[in-house]
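re the bet — no i am not wrong, look at it urself. input seq straight from the record:
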Amino acid sequence: MDKVRAQILEVTIPRTASARIVINAPTQQIFDLIADPRCHPLFDGSGTLQGNISGPERLHLGAKFGMAMKIKVPYRITNKVVAFEEGRKISWCHLMKWTWSYELKDLGAGRTEVTETFDASEIPWLAGKWLAASGAIKHNPKWMAKSLVQLKAICES
C-alpha cells in the first residue's frame, strides 16, 4: 500500500509555503474540525503545538484563541481569525502578523481538496529574522504536508 502524502506546492513569494491534499470526506465535516481550535492538536504535524487551547469552541471572523507552543523554547500565542467563509476558508494570524489559512474546495462525490498556506510575506524585518532563526521557514512545508495527512486520516476514519 502506498504511503499517503500531501503535495507541497511551488511558491514564488518569499516566506510563504503551501501544501494540498484530497480528503474523501464532505467539505463541511473537514471545515468543522478546522474551525474547532480544540481539535488542532489532533492534526498538528509540526509537533510545536503543546495543547492548552483557549477560546471559543467554534471559530468565526474576529474570534481569538490561544495555545501553548514550543519552537526551541516554550511560549503562548494568541491568534485572531482574519478571514472566514463558512465551509470554504479560514485564516488566522497573531502578533507577528503571519497567517495560516485553510481553503477547502468541494470536488463532489464527498471529496474535498484542502490547501493549507503559511504567509509571512509582508511581516516586519525582525519577525522574518525570528522565523529564519527558529527554522520555521525551512520546516513549514513538511510540517504542513504532515498536518494535512493527519487531517485526512482523521476525516476518513
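see?? The beta strands are 7-9, 16-23, 49-54, 64-71, 73-85, 89-93, 99-108, 111-119. told u. also The mean pLDDT is 91. so pay up
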